[in-house]
Amino acid sequence: MAGEPQDDCLFCKIVAGHIPATIVRETETTVAFRDINPKAPTHILVIPKAHYENAAALAAGAPELAADVLRETRAVADEDELDSYRIVFNTGSGAGQTVWHAHAHVLGGRGLEWPPG
């Protein structure tokens, strides 16, 4: 069920404290932590504490929570003193999503090409 923790979800386990992560920020509704396989000098994931399969499900099911996630991307970028950065939401396996819990990637600290990928 949307919003409910999933026993088999890596990010739900991080939220619950069952799997360690390098947490950089936490609010009542979100957690931000360093990616274990960074693609840039700064690569932080911002996730909602509630489980939604992807960004589309999060936006449809809890738009206020989607706004919290986006607000926190700015906060982690500010804390890492990034004057420019990229926010990426991968939705679906064809787009590169590998963990089925909505999350935003905050990437910065180097030049980022366009188009990506």
Automatic annotation (TrEMBL):
SUPFAM superfamilies: HIT-like. The active site is at H103. It holds the Pfam family HIT. CDD domains: PKCI_related. A motif (Histidine triad motif) lies at residues 101-105. Residues 10-117 form the HIT domain. One of its GO terms (molecular function) is catalytic activity. InterPro entries: Histidine_triad_HIT (IPR001310), HIT-like (IPR011146), HIT-like_sf (IPR036265). This is HIT domain-containing protein. It comes from Streptomyces broussonetiae. The lineage of its organism: Bacteria, Bacillati, Actinomycetota, Actinomycetes, Kitasatosporales.
